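Sequence in, structure out.
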Amino acid sequence: MNEQDILAVQSLLATPKKIAIIPHRNPDGDAMGSTLGLYYFLLKNNHFPVVVSPNQFPDFLAWMPGSENVQIFEKDKKNSTKILEEADLVFTLDFNALHRVGEMENVLNSLKAPFVMIDHHQSPDDYAAVTFSDVAYGSTCEMVYHFINALGKKSQIDKTIGTCIYTGILTDSGSFRFPKTTGTTHRIIADLIDLGVENSEIPTLLFDNSSFDRLQLLGRALQNMKIFPEHKTTYTTLTQKELDQFNYIKGDTEGVVNYGLSIQGIVFTAIFIENAEEKIIKISLRSQGDFDVNLFAREYFDGGGHRNAAGGKSEVSMEETVQKFEDLVRKLKI
């Protein structure tokens, strides 16, 4: 954030306000961590914040402090809309284009309140009065830490805020393995641990709390995996029938795409998940090194994200989607 942005935010927060805090649709650990961390920070500063999520967050994040207070737009559109319309200020975190909130976009477009964006994805839209956007950061949670520090209020970061921030940094960094994990990232983590954040307990809550059905679903995804060793690529699929067979709930496929990169010599991997209700194939893409899945997703699958982690969608059948992907892979030079 530059000095002008800092002064603008300080002015916006100078008096108590009703504040809506919004993550993207299908919020992950970084989206929930950043919004809930900011929520507790704003509470400390005598504001009246509410986190309004476009839809339900995964069950494996339900332990997070404040998660029970999150307003779910899809569950209660009337009250959610009222909260948004009465807000004096709106923060959008971990996304930079309003279409990322789904149906809630129509409400956001009608609001008169100023927006503040905090995000680390590429090509931000121009909808916010203040935009803190920087692709150099590995997570929005790390940006929230710096945001609070820039306001001169680092001392207000306590164990609760730190737990939220830690969660997002941990998940979006691939447990500190991704290239954007810097020395500064680790220094922040050390600071949070010193505040009492349970660094040994949080990974267990996030990653070691699977149901038997979830493990069975992972097994099916691994069985479905195909490999193109000459193109350093793998992909796997999960149909709606397979999701139903193993009693899928939101969050059960989190992280499954990363297994493709664990194979020696693989640089590019994808997972294709059928969503019969939305009539789409949801696509997650991951890579290692210089192969840019953000560009790949933008060009071929109506998506985007980061260089090494992106997503997209397809509105044709699973068979047609996979065939398109295979044809593209055979032309790649990785």
